[in-house]
Amino acid sequence: HDFVRARSVFERAVDSDYRTPVVWLAYAEMEMRHRFVNHARNVWDRAVTFLPRVEQLWLKYAFMEEMLENIELARLVFTRWLKWMPDISAYVAFVQFEMRHGDSARARGVYELMVNAHPTLQAYLKYAAFEEKHYNVSGARTVFERAADVYSISVQPEFYVLFGKFEERCSEPKRARAIFNYAIEKL
Known about the structure:
Blueprint: H1 3-16, H2 21-33, H3 37-50, H4 55-67, H5 71-82, H6 88-100, H7 104-117, H8 121-133, H9 137-150, H10 157-169, H11 173-186
């Protein structure tokens, strides 16, 4: 339990090779395990500053803040992370965080950020599935339509199938038929 010495060892390890995420993880987890929250926060902050592309550092940092019930700080960590335009999984983790705390409006905002940062078909489909899951049929339809506008030329056949099935689930057979006919003409 010589924490001063342990910190000294970790600091030397970080000084010699700051690009190794394992060292940062071990250092921050040591601080967390012994309830040195401010030290751990300092380590996480330095780690994500030096290694902003390492997803695990951001996730554990946000998780620590959430476990400490510092929801606003955890939200700030996620917001800082999104400035680096990470992979879609980061946005999904942020959405899951917001939904755990019952804020679907913020989750919807995160999905908007995701489709703006990554205007891929996968991103739009995740967003539409979210809207449908939360009984926002018009919102899901809007997302599908936005995806069709963005991908009007190069959209895959699976997209039209999913869009048509969505309309079927919404008891809109005329819309589904129109989507399938459009897909047949285009493809």
